[in-house]
Structure formats: C-alpha cells, structure tokens
Amino acid sequence: MKHLIFIVIAIFCLAGCYTMQGFEKVRYKAHSTNDASCTIKVSTPIRVTMKIPDNYTFKGLASNNTFEKQFWYRDGSVIYITDEPHSNITYEFIETTGKSSERFFLRDTMTLSGKDKNGRYWKDIKICQFCVGYSNVTADKREMFDQALKSITVNKKSGLQQHIPH
Fold first, then answer.
1. Number of structural domains, the chain?
2. Predicted TM-score (pTM) of this structure
3. Is residue 16 in some structural domain?
4. What domain range is 37 assigned to?
5. Which of 27, 129, 144, 158 is most deeply packed, by most CB within 10 A?
6. Is the residue at 7 inside a domain?
C-alpha cells in the first residue's frame, strides 16, 4: 500500500514538472499596500509569484512609488506585472474596451482581453493593487502565456489568494 501511495505522488510530481517545463519562477513585491478603489484591505505588502516562459529579457520600470517588471521575448511578446492601475503596454487596448473606468474604480478583480490590429493577443488582469498581463502574443503561444497567468500565487497574509482568477 505504501508503494502505491508513493507511485501516485511521484506521478503527480512528474506531471507537474512536465506541464511547467520551459518556465521560470519570477517574484514581485507590490509597493503599495492599499488602493482606494479596492474593497479588500491588505495589511501586508503583496508578494506575487508567477511561472513564466523562459528565455526572456528583463526590463524593470520605476516611477514614484510604483514598479513594473516586464519580460520581453524575441518575437516581441511581453508579459508584465505592475502595481500601477494599468501597464502602459496594454493601456490603449483597455481603453478600447469601454470598461476602463469600471476596471480602475469599481472592481477588485477584472480580466480584459482581446486582439490588437495585427491579430496578436493581449490580456490584462487587475487583482486589487496589482495588474498582470501580456501583449503581442501570437495564437500559437497564447496558451503558454495564459498558463503563466494562471500560475499566479500571492502570499497568504495579503488576503488576496481567493481573488486570483484561475
């Protein structure tokens, strides 16, 4: 019986490693802890972990009390995480949805997505005090980038884990 349990656990571990092969874990700490538009009050800084496709070029942007991490790929696609209300990468796309005011002021968690004028995909997820998303993604890589966004975890003390869309 012990051997059977060990085999089952080993299979799950190997399956987990296989599904995230070619991904790298990145970490992010949101600098602002409370957003006036967020109904969830956070008592500790938000620490976010995400598994993203590897072979990227990192770019960090800082302004005032905010910070954005961008991970650029050779084909021009990018995945980002920021504690700004939006990323400049997807701001223009968010505006075209007609839901920017609702997203910025009325919702704790909101996902917007679509295609740009070149037929490439973008997605932006607002989770209270931070946003994560991607842009300029081709159809054949969309699932891989969606998988990265679904891998998001936050520290338990933040109280946001139940608000992470999966």
1. 1
2. 0.73
3. no
4. 24-163
5. 129
6. no
